[in-house]
Amino acid sequence: MAVVITEQDIYTTASTWSRERLEALVDGLKNTLKSMKPVREEPTKKALQFPRIPKDLKMSQAVKDMVFWDFPKDIDIDKELENMWEERAK
Description:
Layout: H1 7-15, H2 19-35, H3 61-67, H4 77-89
């Protein structure tokens, strides 16, 4: 069976104690809390490290194929950009 203790119960009990007893209780609680380890360690933030890419490194053809491409000859880029902005405005 669970015991329910209200804030009023604590206040009523503590109000009957002497000042020395209350100070001893507070000191004991402080020491107990200091000795307890945190339940969960806070993760340390690691600095981002980006890969160092040499200046003279040549791009492989596979990378070029993924990144660069030629537009089809029959496409009107200005018209496509205009259509894109119109679609976004909707």
